[in-house]
Specification:
There is one protein chain. The chain contains five helices and five strands, in the order βαβαβαβαβα. By secondary structure, it is an alpha/beta fold. The chain has one domain (about 1-120): Rossmann fold. A five-stranded parallel beta sheet has the order 2-1-3-4-5, sandwiched between helices. Helix 1 crosses helix 5. The two termini are about 15 Å apart. About 35% of the residues are buried.
Length: about 120
């Protein structure tokens, strides 16, 4: 069973990403409204992949990536950034911090699925 954590302060975006992921078999989606809530979810269990926004209150997505990468238990978990930040400098910063993929909103379901399947070796 694949466990995916979907992190975004927009309920609508979380739901659309989770809806796209439901096309995969054997996947459970857990949602968090910001990076701080996401870190609490990690304390309660493991995840196989994280999909996160950048701009969120409390703890943003880039800080979340940095926190996850600083913990040996989570340093190999694939992280996909889904954001409106389209500048190449933003993309480079996220990848340098440890994100594995960077998707620009509005994102379509096939883009999300392709990235998830590639990072989890399902293709």
């Amino acid at each position: 069973m694949i466990r995916a954590l979907v992190v975004d302060d927009s309920l609508q975006l979380r739901r659309s990403v989770m809806y796209a992921l439901q096309r995969l078999t054997d996947i459970t989606c857990v949602e968090a409204a910001d990076g701080a809530e996401a870190l609490k979810k990690f304390q309660g269990g493991r995840f196989d992949i994280v999909l996160t926004d950048v701009n969120m209150p409390v703890l943003d997505g880039l800080k979340l990536v940095a926190h996850l990468r600083s913990d040996k238990a989570n340093d190999k978990v694939p992280i996909i950034i889904i954001t409106t930040e389209a500048a190449e400098a933003d993309r480079e910063r996220a990848l340098k911090l440890g994100a594995n993929a960077y998707l620009i909103k509005p994102v379509k379901a096939p883009e999300v699925l392709d990235a998830v399947q590639r990072l989890l070796g399902l293709t």
